C-alpha cells in the first residue's frame, strides 16, 4: 500500500491528487516549489514505473509546469527527480528567478528554508487548484 515518505509528509502541504500523483507544495517559501509523488509503493526511480504510469507522470508534470509558468512567471523552471535524501520517487518543480537567493546554483543546501506566511501558502495552493481545475481532486493525507 502506498504511503508518503515521512520527510515529504513533514516538509509539504497537500494541494490535491492527479490520477497518478499527489500534488504537494514545499513549505520552503524561498521559491515556488511543487512536488509530484506517484501513488505507487516501492518505486524509487521513473524507469520502475509501468509504461502507462511513466506517460501519466510526464502528462501530470507538463500540466503542472504550464500552471506554474502561468501563475509564477519564473525565469527558469527546474524539474528534477533527485532522491538522495528521500528515496521514494518524487518529482520537484522549482520556479527559479535571477533574483532568488541561490541563482544560478541549485536550491538544495544553499540557503536556510523560509516559512510561508499562512495566507501566502493558502493563496498559492488555491491558485494551483484553480489553474489545474479538472485535473486534480481533493485528497486527505
Topology (SSEs and partners):
Layout: H1 6-11, E1 12-17, E2 21-26, E3 33-38, H2 51-72, E4 76-80, E5 91-96, H3 118-132
Antiparallel strand pairs: 1-2, 2-3, 3-5, 4-5
Written description of the protein model:
It is built from three helices and five strands; from the N terminus they run H-E-E-E-H-E-E-H. The protein is α+β, with helices and mostly antiparallel strands. Helix 2 crosses helix 3. It has a five-stranded antiparallel sheet. It has helices at 6-11, 51-72, 118-132; strands at 12-17, 21-26, 33-38, 76-80, 91-96. The model has no long low-confidence stretch (mean pLDDT 95). The protein has one domain (6-134): HIT-like (HIT family, subunit A, 2-Layer Sandwich), CATH 3.30.428.10. Strand 2 and strand 3 form a beta hairpin.
User: In one word, what is the shape?
Assistant: globular
Put simply, the count of helices is 3
State which percent range the strand residues make up.
15-25%
CATH architecture: 2-Layer Sandwich
Question: Sheet bearing the most strands, described?
Answer: 5 strands, antiparallel
Quaternary structure: single chain
* Run of helices and strands: HEEEHEEH
- What's the overall average pLDDT, rounded? 95
Instruction: Quickly count the domains.
Output: 1
Distance between the termini: 14 Å
In CATH, what is the homologous superfamily? Answer: HIT-like
Pick out the low-confidence regions. none
Q: Which structural class should the secondary elements be placed in?
A: alpha+beta
- In the CATH scheme, the class would be Alpha Beta
Number of strands: 5
As a percent range, the share of helical residues equals 25-40%
- Enumerate the strands of the largest sheet in spatial order, edge to edge or round the barrel: 1-2-3-5-4
